[in-house]
Task: inverse folding
């Protein structure tokens, strides 16, 4: 028992322009962890915020020794912020949470219990509904999860949040994956470990506004597919091969027909359509290959995932 009291949980919070949300988050989380069985500390990651987020964090860190922060030199994105948090964390357990209280802190003690008593390495959360979200956004999200399910060989749960409680071993495994194009929802599944999924109802953010536009989310999903599957490359080769065979059969057919009936000049509109169609298909395939090459290029450069300006 006395040994248990020394264990510590690091709560990682990526923050980008969250000056309004952070104080509310801090209050609510402290309240929820009043009777938490182990020690905890905060590790806020200021992802190059343009508002007063860093001042708010410095203020909190000055008042409370449980509060630590890492501040980036510019905005590197939530993926980089999560990676930095995991890398800099020291706790025996780690929780990743959004700053906007969309991830209920009341769940944390239960997550700890599951790890201790039920033998899980990790407890992850997923939203059971997407209330308050535009239907078109939900539709695209569902298509994305369906696609990922079929083409990527990793365990991806629909509605999965980044909010999760992990043991040190799992955190170390994730930190080991130092790739530049990070898609954490895939990485969490890729590293394996025993994961328990708990559902919760979607909540509105307490303050500030979302940092994800539809276009940003779309790009992020493409990133996920490219990072976790090479299936599109195979598809484009297979489609190319099928059309090659079809073209060959058509060629023989046309040749034989010309021998028998002669060669009247007609049918150029259909020819024009076919040329356009195949030109489009070729460009599409080249585009797919290009996406993989560009990701490889970024990976090969080996640039750091984030740059720290200051921390405490
Ligand atoms: N975030 C970040 N860097 C970014 C964008 C977002 O660290 O470039 C943080 C943000 O401060 C929040 C979390 O990631 O704590 C989730 O962002 P948000 O709530 O805007 O996303 P949503 O919940 O709408 O998907
Ligand atoms: Mg949010």
Result:
């Amino acid at each position: 028992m006395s040994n248990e009291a020394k264990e510590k949980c690091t709560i990682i919070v990526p923050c980008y322009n969250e000056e309004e949300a952070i104080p509310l988050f801090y209050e609510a989380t402290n309240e929820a962890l009043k009777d938490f069985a182990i020690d905890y500390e905060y590790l806020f990651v200021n992802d190059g915020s343009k508002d007063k987020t860093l001042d708010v964090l410095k203020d909190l860190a000055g008042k409370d020794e449980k509060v630590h922060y890492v501040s980036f030199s510019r905005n590197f994105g939530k993926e980089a912020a999560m990676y930095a948090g995991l890398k800099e964390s020291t706790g025996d357990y780690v929780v990743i949470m959004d700053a906007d209280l969309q991830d209920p802190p009341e769940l944390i003690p239960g997550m700890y219990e599951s790890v201790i008593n039920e033998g899980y390495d990790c407890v992850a959360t997923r939203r059971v509904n997407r209330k308050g979200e535009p239907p078109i956004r939900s539709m695209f999200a569902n298509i994305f999860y369906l696609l990922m399910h079929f083409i990527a060989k990793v365990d991806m749960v629909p509605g999965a949040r980044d909010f999760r409680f992990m043991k040190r071993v799992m955190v170390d495994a994730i930190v080991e994956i130092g790739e530049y194009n990070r898609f954490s929802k895939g990485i969490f599944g890729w590293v394996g470990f025993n994961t328990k999924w708990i559902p919760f109802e979607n909540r509105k953010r307490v303050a500030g506004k979302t940092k994800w536009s539809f276009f940003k989310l779309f790009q992020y999903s493409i990133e996920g597919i490219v990072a976790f599957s090479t299936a599109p490359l195979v598809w484009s080769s297979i489609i190319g091969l099928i059309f090659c065979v079809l073209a060959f059969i058509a060629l023989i057919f046309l040749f034989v027909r010309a021998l028998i009936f002669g060669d009247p000049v007609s049918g150029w509109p259909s020819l024009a359509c076919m040329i356009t169609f195949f030109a489009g298909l070729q460009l599409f395939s080249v585009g797919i290959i290009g996406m993989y090459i560009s990701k490889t290029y970024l990976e090969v450069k080996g640039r750091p995932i984030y740059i720290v300006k200051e921390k405490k």
Q: What stands out?
A: The chain has a mean pLDDT of 88. The domain at 7-212+305-311 is CATH 3.90.550.10 (Spore Coat Polysaccharide Biosynthesis Protein SpsA; Chain A). The chain has two domains: 7-212+305-311, 231-301.
